[in-house]
Structure formats: C-alpha cells, structure tokens
Amino acid sequence: MKQILVFVLFAAMLCWLMFSPIYKHVVIVRQAVLQQEVNYLLEIGASGGRGYISTQMQQQSRERLARFGMRPEAVRFEVSTTDGMSAMDASRPVPRGTGILLTMSYPYENLFEIDRLIGLEPVRADERMSAFGIKMSEYMP
Questions:
Q1: Burial class, 52, CB count within 10 angstroms (exposed 0-12 / middle 13-18 / buried 19+)
Q2: Does the predicted TM-score (pTM) go above 0.70?
Q3: What is the pLDDT of residue 103?
Q4: Are 23 and 114 within 8 A, CB to CB?
Q5: Phi first, then psi: what are they for 81, rounded to 5°?
Q6: Domain ranges of the chain
Q7: Phi, psi of 140, deg, nearest 5
Q8: What percent of the chain has pLDDT over 90?
C-alpha cells in the first residue's frame, strides 16, 4: 500500500515538474504580447495625427492578438485620459499634453490548474492578466 501511495505521489510530482515550465512560459509570452500591444496602440493613438484610440484600432489589436493564439473576444480595453475626457472619439481628439491611459486585460484560462497536483490553489477563473500604459497626446489641432 505504501508503494502505491509513493508511486502516485511521485507520478504527480513528475507530471508537475515536466509541465509547469510550459504553462509559465505561456503566461510570460501572453503578458509580453499584451504589453507590446498596449505600447503600440498608445504610440499610434497618441501621435500627432490621431489623438485617440478608436474601436476600429481595438478590433485590429484583437486580430493581431489572435495570431498569438489568444481569443479576440476575451480581450478587454479600458481607455481614458488624465483629464477625464473620452480618448475614443475621433471627432474630439485628445489635445497635446493630456495623457492617454490604456489598460488591456486577458483571462488566465485555467493555465494554473496543474498546480493543484502539488497542493497550490490555482488562479481563480475570473482573474485576468493585464498590461497598462500611459502616453501624452501629441495631437495639435
């Protein structure tokens, strides 16, 4: 009986040791891709020619993220400014000197379920990884 118990515990530890680096790399890559996309959208949106981040730009971002295996419908955007005005209205671009804030988030999608094998509580299903950025608008009317 002891040998069976040792075998089961050893097999669980072996599985965790084999697969834990894989899912952690997935989390790191997804986080990096989110941050890269935030930086790109802020660079484009806060440029002198735009001064906003439109829903069309967000949709294009979702399409780029889909190429990395992320579900486009699960990506959330929060766009705001430092003075409280809308940063998504193309007819009213954010003037120069006002900061555009962008937060993108994506669910963890049960990537940490394998941690249950060693007794760790995985990340809750409703938790999301996020990336944040702020850039001063360069738009001149």
A1: buried
A2: yes
A3: 96
A4: yes
A5: -130, 165
A6: 18-113+128-136
A7: -120, 120
A8: 50
